[in-house]
From TrEMBL:
This is Methyltransferase. InterPro entries: DNA_methylase_N6_adenine_CS, RlmG_N, RsmC/RlmG, SAM-dependent_MTases_sf, Small_mtfrase_dom. It comes from the Bacteria. GO terms for molecular function: methyltransferase activity. The keyword Transferase applies. Gene3D superfamilies: Vaccinia Virus protein VP39. Residues 198-365 form the Methyltransferase small domain.
Length: 370
């Protein structure tokens, strides 16, 4: 197996349409180490699956090295779009297929290149799926940054694989190589009843099958009367969407998230609570399917990390798209950690902003579209 070179230029990889910046690389040392360890194994180019590729580094390097028919799953839709844009840049369109995290993704796989998720539950879902459907001689080459890895990840992989080799750490990264799949199982959403609401969550979704304290605070602060449609932006597991639909039987909810796991979780949450007929759950980057000025009420609990990177640039991007979608006089209700001081950004991007409630940790605001 030759080293990735030829058409593929790692330095030319971009994160677009996701956030870009000097401290937000499209390919890092963990990606390079995964590729190097795979190259050393000389496992060939057939039946290659890539899971968790950030922006196409693993997929396109593998394609450039000779792999073809690569099957890929990326949880973030922005990552899928970045992979497509990078593939076009390097002339590698058609070298891969983007697929959901299900049996078809890993059926008969001989090699799985895995960027380790930070969530142990997400890793359990992936390991169980691979063990259930990949070829008996599959080799899983899983890597990540040391700061996001734990010894517990070894234990999770050992639950589904007979052997696990651990590489030496290099450039603050490490690779785990798993072989001998056994006792595989398809992912199943974890469920819990919290405050009378059934919460469903696949691995990797924020807060899992619980209701995080920021969302609790937002729900307690929402007004008693709502318009005919509410938009739950960055909906996560669908807690807000399901809660609003249950409280307001005449209201329809449009719930969106770019995470495949979040969307799958939200669909199960709204179904489990009997409101699926009034909640539309959509996977999209930002609110890209919504027309300008098409909403009068949006709720948002904005994330503050992109993959493993924590940044305060995410929320303003979401505020801007919410402002685009809101009609004049429409409102964005937002909960945020008070230390982040988002009010000035909300005033600038959306419009006049008033504080609805505040406790020792969180602030809820309502911003009116100019």
């Amino acid at each position: 197996m030759s080293s990735p070179a030829a058409h593929f230029d790692a330095d030319a990889l971009r994160r677009w349409p996701d956030l870009e910046g000097p401290d937000l690389p499209a390919m890092d040392a963990a990606d390079r180490l995964i590729l190097e360890e795979w190259s050393a194994l000389r496992t060939g180019f057939e039946d290659v699956v890539v899971i968790g590729d950030g922006y196409g580094a693993l997929t396109l390097a593998a394609a450039d090295a000779g792999a073809h028919g690569i099957r890929v799953h990326q949880d973030a839709l922005a990552g899928e779009h970045a992979l497509a844009a990078n593939a076009a840049r390097f002339g590698l369109q058609g070298s891969y297929r983007s697929m959901p995290l299900d049996a078809s993704l890993v059926a008969g796989a001989r090699v799985v290149l895995l960027r380790l998720p930070r969530s142990l539950d997400a890793l359990r879902d992936i390991a169980g799926l691979v063990a259930a459907h990949a070829a008996p001689d599959v080799v899983v080459v899983a890597g990540g940054r040391l700061k996001h890895m734990s010894v517990a990840m070894n234990d999770v992989l050992r639950e589904r694989f007979a052997s696990l080799d651990i590489s030496l750490a290099r450039q603050k990264s490490r690779v785990l190589i798993a072989r001998g799949p056994h006792d595989g199982v398809d992912p199943v959403a974890r469920r819990a009843v919290v405050d009378g609401l059934v919460v469903c969550a696949y691995g990797g979704t924020f807060a899992g099958p619980t209701i995080d304290i920021g969302t609790r605070f937002l729900l307690a602060s929402l007004p008693d009367r709502l318009p005919d449609e509410v938009v739950d932006f960055a909906c996560g597991t669908g807690v807000v969407a399901a809660s609003v639909a249950l409280r307001h039987p005449s209201v329809r909810v449009y719930a969106s998230d770019q995470s495949a796991a979040a969307v799958a979780s939200a669909r199960e949450t709204v179904a489990a609570n009997g409101v699926a007929d009034r909640v539309d759950v959509v996977r999209e980057d930002l609110l890209s399917s919504r027309a300008d000025g098409s909403a009068s009420f949006i709720v948002l609990n904005p994330p503050f990390h992109v993959g493993g990177a924590v940044t305060d640039d995410i929320a303003p991007r979401l505020f801007a798209d919410a402002a685009r979608v809101l009609r004049s006089g429409g409102e964005l209700w937002c909960v945020w950690n008070s230390a982040l001081r988002y009010r000035a950004a909300l005033e600038r991007i959306v419009g006049p902003t008033r504080q609805i409630d505040r406790n020792t940790k969180f602030t809820v605001t309502a911003s009116t579209r100019r």
